[in-house]
Specification:
Blueprint lengths: L8 H15 L6 H8 L3 H8 L2 H16 L1 H9 L3 H15 L8 H6 L7 H27 L9 H18 L11 H11 L1
Helix pairs in contact: 1-2, 1-4, 4-8, 5-6, 6-9, 8-9, 9-10
Length: 192
C-alpha cells in the first residue's frame, strides 16, 4: 500500500498555475514546478503525468476559478447590462498596477510551444467568451438596446478583439492609463 498524500491536489494546481502565469509554459521547468508546489518529481509525474498534464490542469483551474466569475457575469445577465459589467470588469482589471495578463491569452500567443490539447483548451476558452458575448448581444438586440441591423456575431468578435488588446496593454505600464478610455469607445460602437 502506498503512502498517503501529504499535499492538496488543488493547492498544487493553484501554485503551478501561478508559475505558468508568471513565466509562461516554455520558460517553466519541471524543477520550477517542483520547487514552487512542494511536490517531488516522482509525485508530480504520478499525479499529473508530466508538465503538460499539470499545465492542462492549471488552465482548467484558471478557467473555473479565476476567469470564471467574469464569465458568470454574462451567464447571469445575458443582456446589455451584463456586457457593460463584463467590459468594465475586464478593463478595470487590465488597468491595475499588479495586472499580469490572462493566463489563457498569454498562451494563445504561444500556442505553437504548448501541446495540442492545451492549445485546444485555449481555443475553447476564446470561443466560450465569444459565444457568451454573442448571446448577450442577441438578447440586447431583442430588447431594443442594439440596433436590429447590427451583426451581433461580428460585434462579439469585435469585443473579444478589444479584450485581447486590453490584456496586452495591461502588461505594459505605459499603456495602463489609456485602457479605461476604451470602454466608452466600445460602447459607442455597440450602441450607435
Amino acid at each position: 500500500m502506498g503512502r498517503p498524500k501529504t499535499y492538496s491536489r488543488d493547492a498544487v494546481i493553484e501554485k503551478a498555475m501561478g508559475v505558468f502565469w508568471q513565466n509562461g509554459y516554455k520558460a517553466t521547468s519541471v524543477s520550477d514546478l517542483v520547487r514552487e508546489t512542494g511536490l517531488n518529481t516522482a509525485s508530480m509525474y504520478k499525479e499529473f503525468g508530466d508538465k503538460d498534464g499539470l499545465f492542462s490542469e492549471a488552465l482548467e483551474h484558471y478557467r473555473l476559478h479565476v476567469i470564471g466569475p467574469r464569465y458568470q457575469i454574462l451567464r447571469d445577465n445575458p443582456n446589455m447590462s451584463g456586457i457593460e459589467l463584463f467590459l468594465g470588469n475586464v478593463l478595470q482589471g487590465a488597468s491595475k498596477s499588479e495586472y499580469k495578463g490572462c493566463l489563457m491569452m498569454n498562451h494563445l500567443a504561444q500556442k505553437h510551444v504548448i501541446n495540442p490539447d492545451a492549445a485546444d483548451q485555449v481555443g475553447a476558452f476564446c470561443q466560450e467568451i465569444e459565444s457568451l458575448l454573442e448571446n448577450a448581444l442577441r438578447n440586447a438586440q431583442a430588447e431594443g438596446d442594439i440596433a436590429p441591423d447590427k451583426d451581433v456575431q461580428k460585434l462579439a468578435s469585435f469585443i473579444v478583439f478589444c479584450v485581447h488588446g486590453a490584456v496586452l496593454y495591461g502588461r505594459h505600464d505605459s499603456k495602463k492609463s489609456v485602457i479605461p478610455n476604451f470602454y466608452d469607445m466600445i460602447m459607442r460602437e455597440l450602441l450607435s
